[in-house]
Design brief:
Layout: E1 12-14, H1 30-39, H2 43-56, H3 79-87, E2 91-94, E3 101-102, E4 113-118, E5 121-126, E6 129-132, E7 143-149, H4 151-159
Parallel strand pairs: 1-6
Antiparallel strand pairs: 2-7, 3-7, 4-5, 4-7, 5-6
Helix pairs in contact: 1-2
C-alpha cells in the first residue's frame, strides 16, 4: 500500500494585508502585513500601533544605521515587540540556536495561523495557505527560524 505524499509547498495567495487601500509604492512593511493578515485586523490600525511603538523605542548606542519604522522594518527582537505580540495572545516558538524549519507541509500544520520569521522577512501561513506579496517559500526550502502562534487555537482544534 502506497502512502499519500504531501505537496512540497503551500498554496500561495498574493495579499498585501490591506496596504493598497492606504498607501502606494514599495515598503519594507512585511511585519505589519503579516500581523494584519494573521489577526484579521485593518492594516492601518496595526501600522499605527507599530509605528507609535517604533517611535517610542529607545535608540541603541551601537545602532548607527537608520531608525526602524513600521514602513521600513520593525526590529522584531526588541522587548516591546514581544510584549505587543503577547498582548494579542501570541506565543513565540523558536527553531533553536543555529536550526530552522523548512517552509513546507512536512514541518507545519495544515490548520492554524502562523506568523513566520524568515531571514529578514515575516510572512503569514493561515490554514495551510501562504499569504504575502511574493511567494517566499523557495519551493519548500525557505528557512523559518521561528514563528508566532496562538496556543488556544490549537487546543480548540485538537478537541474536535
Amino acid at each position: 500500500m502506497d502512502l499519500p505524499t504531501l505537496p512540497q509547498t503551500f498554496p500561495f495567495v498574493c495579499d498585501d494585508g490591506g496596504r493598497s487601500r492606504y498607501f502606494r509604492g514599495r515598503a519594507g512593511d512585511c511585519v505589519v502585513r503579516s500581523i494584519a493578515i494573521a489577526m484579521g485586523r485593518d492594516y492601518l490600525e496595526v501600522y499605527s500601533e507599530l509605528s507609535a511603538l517604533c517611535k517610542a523605542e529607545r535608540q541603541s548606542k551601537c545602532r548607527t544605521f537608520k531608525r526602524v519604522s513600521a514602513r521600513n522594518g520593525v526590529d522584531t527582537k526588541r522587548k516591546w515587540f514581544r510584549e505587543y505580540m503577547r498582548s494579542h495572545n501570541y506565543v513565540w516558538q523558536s527553531a533553536g540556536f543555529g536550526a530552522h524549519y523548512s517552509l513546507n507541509p512536512r514541518c507545519f500544520s495544515a490548520t492554524g495561523t502562523f506568523i513566520l520569521s524568515m531571514r529578514r522577512h515575516y510572512s503569514c501561513l493561515k490554514d495551510g495557505v501562504l499569504y504575502d506579496i511574493v511567494d517566499p517559500s523557495r519551493e519548500g526550502t525557505a528557512p523559518v527560524f521561528g514563528y508566532w502562534y496562538k496556543p488556544d487555537h490549537f487546543a480548540t482544534n485538537m478537541e474536535g
